Amino acid sequence: MGHRGEHPGEPRPGRVPPRRRRRPRVLRTLVLLLVLLLLAAVIALVIADQKLDRVDALGPYPGRIADTPGTNYLLVGTDSRAGLSDEQVADLSTGGDAGATRTDTIMLLHVSARGNSVLVSIPRDSYVTIPRWGEDKVNAAYSVGGASLLVETIELETGVRIDHYAEIGFGGFAEIASAIGGVEVCLESPIVDPLAGIDLPAGCQVLSGGDALGYVRSRSTPLADIDRMNNQRNFLARLARKAGSPGVVLNPFRSVPVGLALLRSMSVDEGDRIWDTGRIAWSLRGDIPTVSVPYSGFMDVAGRGNVMLWDEQGATALWDSIARDAPLPEGIE
């Protein structure tokens, strides 16, 4: 029974009334903060997209092939020294002004409609037909007619339609490698290349800045350009995987510098958006197949130098499988 003078529901004298639960208010505050963070991220993404440098790479041309299944990204590294100071040129061992800009690296990333990906190196010395120019090394297409002529040349040679385009110069690559905290590579043998500015011991090591750039540029290995292409594919895949890792994405001290480096150094097609670059990193996650165009040998051509000849049967089989979004032929590596 209750005491006299007490009414049901009233607190007893001397007892502190129980505090009301504040959990709903805390929850509302957390939801509001999350919404504000998401809104800020979207605004930052839109602003970054507007600042991204764009080039006319995928413009129409007479006789352009129809769309092919899957999604194809042309990834280009140029020997451009644009924006580099004399000190940076010396630090990165890029050799200063080398005349007309050419493509130092050409790769095609094919993302299948089935969800898997393949990264294909296109040797820069590949002997191809450049429209309105003639037969020459594929990297000459860029210096002759820029990104659009390079895309046209590759589409006509491969029968694969390019959907997205991204390019980066020497300085940008070195800056991104540093901003991301470097990438680990494991060398079976030392690489000493004064022209590329590197002296790398055998074994596993983390490369950034000038060392990373020198590693993907060097031909001072037993197989020269063949090793160079393998190193490029390996480094790019590792770089993309690290860029998409929680340690970078969730760490503003990593993600912000990487994003700023991309904005300063990357160019994309006029129809591309910054989130397309994110899809590149996402598509390169995991251990995806990385191959090179099969070749049959090399030949000296007057006025063109030493060129690489594609193996007609092997190259045709490779490009046909990609154009049809089919599994890669056996024996391609």
TrEMBL record:
<dbReference type="Pfam" id="PF03816">
    <property type="entry name" value="LytR_cpsA_psr"/>
</dbReference>
<protein>
    <submittedName>
        <fullName>LCP family protein</fullName>
    </submittedName>
</protein>
<keyword id="KW-0472">Membrane</keyword>
<comment type="similarity">
    <text>Belongs to the LytR/CpsA/Psr (LCP) family.</text>
</comment>
<keyword id="KW-1133">Transmembrane helix</keyword>
<dbReference type="InterPro" id="IPR050922">
    <property type="entry name" value="LytR/CpsA/Psr_CW_biosynth"/>
</dbReference>
<dbReference type="InterPro" id="IPR004474">
    <property type="entry name" value="LytR_CpsA_psr"/>
</dbReference>
<keyword id="KW-0812">Transmembrane</keyword>
<feature type="domain" description="Cell envelope-related transcriptional attenuator">
    <location>
        <begin position="102"/>
        <end position="243"/>
    </location>
</feature>
<feature type="compositionally biased region" description="Basic and acidic residues">
    <location>
        <begin position="1"/>
        <end position="13"/>
    </location>
</feature>
<feature type="transmembrane region" description="Helical">
    <location>
        <begin position="29"/>
        <end position="48"/>
    </location>
</feature>
<feature type="region of interest" description="Disordered">
    <location>
        <begin position="1"/>
        <end position="21"/>
    </location>
</feature>
